[in-house]
Each structure stands twice: as C-alpha cells, then as structure tokens.
Amino acid sequence: MLVGLMVSAIVFMVACGGFGGEPAEDQADGGNGEGNGGQEEGPDLSSPPEIEGDVVSEGEESTIRFGIGLAESSPQYISVEYFRDILEERTDGRISVDIFPNSQVGDDNEMMDGLQSGTLEMTYPSTSPAATIVPELAVFDLPFLFPSRESAYEVLDSEIGQEMLDSFEGTGIKALYFTENGYRQLTNSQTEIQGPDDVGGLRVRVMENEVQLSIWNALGANPTPMAFGEVFSAMEQGVVDGQENPWSTILTSNFAEVQQYGAETRHVYTPFMIMISQGFWDGLSPEDQEIVQEAAEQSGDYERMISEEYDEYSKEQLAEQGMEISELDEQQLAEFQDATEPVYDEWAPRIGEDLVQDIQDMVDEVEGQ
Length: 369
Ligand code: TK8
Fold this sequence. Notes:
369 residues, alpha/beta, D-Maltodextrin-Binding Protein, domain 2, 14 helices
C-alpha cells in the first residue's frame, strides 16, 4: 500500500509538472549529468516502419503515462516513442502518450504496482521482477537457456509465451508483448574476468529475483538484489563492485563511468514485457484496444531489431570509453555454463520440470541439436 501511495505521489508530481512534467534531461544519463549515455552520436539504427492501419477518429480521449527504467538513448525508450507515434496517428490524436524514463516514476516493481493501483497506465519491465506475479517467467532467468535470439523468439512467440502473457489475467495487469532486454554481461570495478574463479567474492548487484541470486551464489560471488534505478549510485559509492546487464543498458546508463572491467558472459537472455493497466485497458473501446495491441506488437518488433543493432555498437563504444572488455572463448564460456548448472537442479523443479523441458526441446529444434 505504501509503495502504491509513493508511486501515485511520484506520478502525480510528474503529471502535474512537479518534477518538470517532461522527462528531465539530467535524468537521461543514469545520474552523471552527461545525457545520452555519454555518446558523441547514437548508433546508425534502422528507422521504424511506416505507420499503417485504420485511423479511428471517434472515441474517448485519454493520456497514457508510460514509465520505463532505461534512459532516453536506450532502444527501449526509442521504441516507446514509436509506440506513442502509432497511437497518436491511428487514434487521430485522441490517445496521447507521456513517457517517463530512468525509473523516474519508480522501479520495475513500483511501476507494476502503479498499473495495478491505476496510478500509471503502462510500463516495460524485465521478466525477472515480473516473476513475483507470474512465477513461470523465472524460466527466462535460467542461465544459458537461449543460445541465440532466434530460439528466444521461437519460445516467446509460441503458445508457451502466450500462456505466460495470459497468466497475468486477474492481477490488474494486461501483458501485451515480449521484447528484448538482451544478453546480460558482467561488469565490475575490481578485476579482469576470465573465468568463474575471478568472480569469487565479487559484490554483484542482481535483479530482485531468486534465480538471479542462485546464479551468482553458484559462481561464488556475493550478490545483492537491488532496483535498477539505484545501481549507478551503489557502484559509484562502492556499495557493490559490479552489475550485469546488456551492453546497450551499460552504455546508455553510463556505467563505464564507474566500471573498469567488462566480460562478455552472455549468461542470461532477459526479455522485456510491454504491460498496460487492466483497469485502463477495460475502459478502452474494442477498436482502441486493437490499436494498442497492434502498436505494442509493431513497436515491440522494432525494439527487438534495434536492440540487436545496438548491442555490438554499445560494446565498441564502451571499449572506446575505456572499459577493458574480456571477450570470452568457448572454453571460458563453458566454464561459466558448468559452474551454473546446479541452478537448474535447484530451480527446474520449482519453476516446472515440464515447462523447462518443453522450452529446451524447442531450443534444441531451432538450434539443430
Ligand atoms: C529496467 C530494468 C533493467 C534490468 C535490470 O527497468 O534491472 O538490471 O535489466 O533493464 O528492467
């Protein structure tokens, strides 16, 4: 309840311009004042597809407050701008979208609370914190589950994925579509990483998810669950030594300012989820619901594309900013995979042996194993 009130106060303040109304510039940099991830210019990303589909002029007017965790230079934010443009064009301006980046109106858990309490209309969390609402989502926290994006999307866009989206029914949240957070990489301020032995004792921030804790305990680290919005200052103050996220998040959140070392571990592939408040959704006409769903899928497919484009570019940019990045070979990655195998023993029975096996079978089919 307290969180709900806190989120509503934050959202109310922002909506009334209490925090300046528009996404504040100085928050577009993960907190160090540079803005745009400290990049001279962004990557050469594909432009979004032309907006197509019927325009529905008749109907209610409304404003969607869309809270996200990442910076304005992130693929997540860029795709939500496209979502906004689709909605505004196809409803003839009736539905507008105000975007609040950088955990400005709360972290993933607080923003999902906001959807349930009706103080926020949309948000875009990782599946990891959402597993507190739909436990089966924790399957995506299993290490090295998806060798490629192709097998990830095969599963996310399958009946298995649709059942997980549908599992939000009755929670106050409608989950619309899976997109890409991406392959997670380890960074830290203490030491070069060449294998699991280098991770021992490292104080690593992890998402608020028990499988993530198990992974880093299995590697001998000292993991601390923490909301994403607190990570930059925790690393800057030396509360933790490191964190793990996709390269584009590490770049656009300016983590290279406080993280000397990176390691291309690709230890987990995390999906994002586009979510809408059930109460707000129920108030939409069937025509507007169709437009929102189509906009989520079209902007989601665009996000998947630019997230992949941003990945390699971000790693290169981080190296240019001085991060020493270890590109691990097959043997080194196999050592990480072996060291985290016990996580399956602990979590497959708790998540659901059949679900884990079904996903692994789909992955094997796609990967030709
Ligand atoms: C952003 C988070 C972030 C996630 C994390 O809202 O918490 O590290 O990877 O992208 O969802």
